[in-house]
């Protein structure tokens, strides 16, 4: 079946040999030629270099109607429009895959929910990890000094434990003072941040 068209521009007509009246409606096909391939109507992109498309392209080049476009009714007319594009075929936008996880109604208890005690422990651990590291200069009774690093969540008791580790055998009968004028750090449960001694000086007194 011949097609009187140019492969790049124009349009042609594939007609059957029979012209019985009344004539069936025409079949119209648009073939878009991109720089890297072609598409037929709204069909998928087809590459020039794919061997499966060789027969189709040869028919167009010879002004023949490709077999896949021939109508089932041989009396039908086929109109083929060849449309030249000067750019590559635009890749279709990929849609995000829908969420496929399991759902849960709000307020429904979870089988693997964390116990309240464990949650509190995790929260406390996270708080401690997030604490800032500060320096504290300690003046010992004998006049020696040392710069120690603590987290702001450490307590006065932790500072005393550090001193006892650094000065074993000297006993724990001493007080710690800080600030000006110096005030005793008697509450061992207060944190370094609460006591306001971050990046400051602590004096050991007996």
Automatic annotation (TrEMBL):
GO terms for molecular function: ubiquitin binding. Residues 26-90 form the SEP domain. Residues 107-116 have a biased composition (Polar residues). Residues 129-205 form the UBX domain. Pfam families: SEP, UBX. GO terms for cellular component: cytosol; nucleus. Residues 87-119 are annotated as: Disordered. GO terms for biological process: autophagosome assembly; Golgi organization; membrane fusion; nuclear membrane reassembly; proteasome-mediated ubiquitin-dependent protein catabolic process. SUPFAM superfamilies: NSFL1 (p97 ATPase) cofactor p47, SEP domain, Ubiquitin-like. This is UBX domain-containing protein.
């Amino acid at each position: 079946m011949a097609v009187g068209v140019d492969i790049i521009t124009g349009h042609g007509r594939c007609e059957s040999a029979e012209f019985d009246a009344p004539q069936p409606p025409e079949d119209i096909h648009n073939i878009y030629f991109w720089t890297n391939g072609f598409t037929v109507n709204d069909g998928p992109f087809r590459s020039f270099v794919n061997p499966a498309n060789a027969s189709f392209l040869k028919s167009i080049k010879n002004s023949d109607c490709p077999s896949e476009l021939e109508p089932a009714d041989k009396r039908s007319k086929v109109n083929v429009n060849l449309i030249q594009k000067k750019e590559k075929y635009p890749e279709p936008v990929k849609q995000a895959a829908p969420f496929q996880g399991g759902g849960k109604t709000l307020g429904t208890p979870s089988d693997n929910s964390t116990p309240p005690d464990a949650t509190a422990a995790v929260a406390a651990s996270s708080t401690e990890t997030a604490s800032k590291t500060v320096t504290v200069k300690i003046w010992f009774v004998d006049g020696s000094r040392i710069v120690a690093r603590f987290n702001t969540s450490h307590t006065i008791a932790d500072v005393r434990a550090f001193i006892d580790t650094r000065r074993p055998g000297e006993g724990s009968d001493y007080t710690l003072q800080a600030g000006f004028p110096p005030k005793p750090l008697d509450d061992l449960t207060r944190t370094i941040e609460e006591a306001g001694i971050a990046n400051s000086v602590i004096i050991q007194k007996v």
